[in-house]
């Protein structure tokens, strides 16, 4: 997190003081590196320090602050755009240094997680931190679990290579799929259309501001709903309910735009415009309490300690890669599909809902170190992957389950 803060600060300075395009590009690259480090470190940090019963809600506080930041950034951009003299963009980019400084300062005072301390051999310090964050002296069972997980993790010399082992494929498949699906929910299409639709309601030049405020506020409030419900209802329920809500919203928007808007007319009408805005808010709310935060929460709590950092790295890379792909392809898709782009994303939402229903196990209220035994080994499909590749070879050779040959063992 300290490295992320440093990248943010240097990137902000270069952008705000840019004298040419090269400085802007370098600054943006550094900011992108900061985003990558932050998305790698923060979800893992929160999942490792959180008590099991509130792990989901505490982790989603990260996403809540992201949504609040998006709302404030939109308001700052709108306000600085009104500054005469052409220097407003420097102020807009420079103000990003304030949260960057807070992140850097906070990273200096935050404690290491017990998992990290134990894995590096600081057992007593790890026990003390665990006792402090749990607020009780009765931490011996959890401490012993962390020590055992650390022992197993130290046996892994190549965590990225270990990700490809049979027993780690379910977590890897689910984490990668969630990142791809998150980008194919169509959130970018909705956010792109929002200012245009607000313009049809008569807001004129203020359409961008109203769009940012309304969708941003819905985003924040719905993420708060997720904070309070994710550990009560579970991850699967939120994803499946949101899938239905997003699917219906996108189909309704596509039908209305297909009927009322053409290449030669964008007169949506006041009544229909209000209804479409309601559908937009319905869609954004569903995304904000499901695929938005849970796309980061679930990967951070499913990988075992020996591959946790490597798995989160792959998760962040896939997410940012498909964010880039969607950003580059969206305008061309919009020109070719028109209103049909909402139907395109609706099809993906249907597919990802089936994926969740059949292949995503529930991880609510299950300690991270017990995921293998209580989640993966109990799932109808993934349990067949929960053996080492060497054990599979023994099974094929001797015909005994779990690689156990009674004669040779006796």
Q: What does the model show?
A:
- This protein is an all-alpha fold.
- Helix content is about 75%, strand content about 0%.
- It has helices at about 1-15, 20-50, 55-80, 90-95, 95-110, 115-120, 125-135, 140-155, 160, 170-185, 185-205, 205-235, 235-260, 270-290, 290-300, 310-335, 340-360, 370-375, 390-400, 405-410.
- The longest helix is centred in the last third of the chain and has 30 residues, at about 310-335.
- It is globular, with a radius of gyration of 24 Å.
- About 35% of the residues are buried.
- It holds the Pfam family Sugar_tr.
- It is found in: Membrane.
- Keywords: Membrane, Sugar transport, Symport, Transmembrane, Transmembrane helix, Transport.
- It is a multi-pass membrane protein.
- This is Sugar transport protein 13.
Helix and strand composition category: mainly alpha
Work out the helicity level: over 70%
Morphology call: globular
Q: Tell me, rounded to a whole number, the average pLDDT.
A: 86
Calculate Rg over CA atoms. Answer: 24 Å
Summarize the main sheet.
none
Oligomer: single chain
Number of helices: 20
Distance between the terminal alpha carbons, to the nearest Å?
Answer: 52 Å
Topology pattern, helix = H, strand = E: HHHHHHHHHHHHHHHHHHHH
Poorly predicted parts: 400-410
Beta percentage is under 5%
Q: How many strands?
A: 0
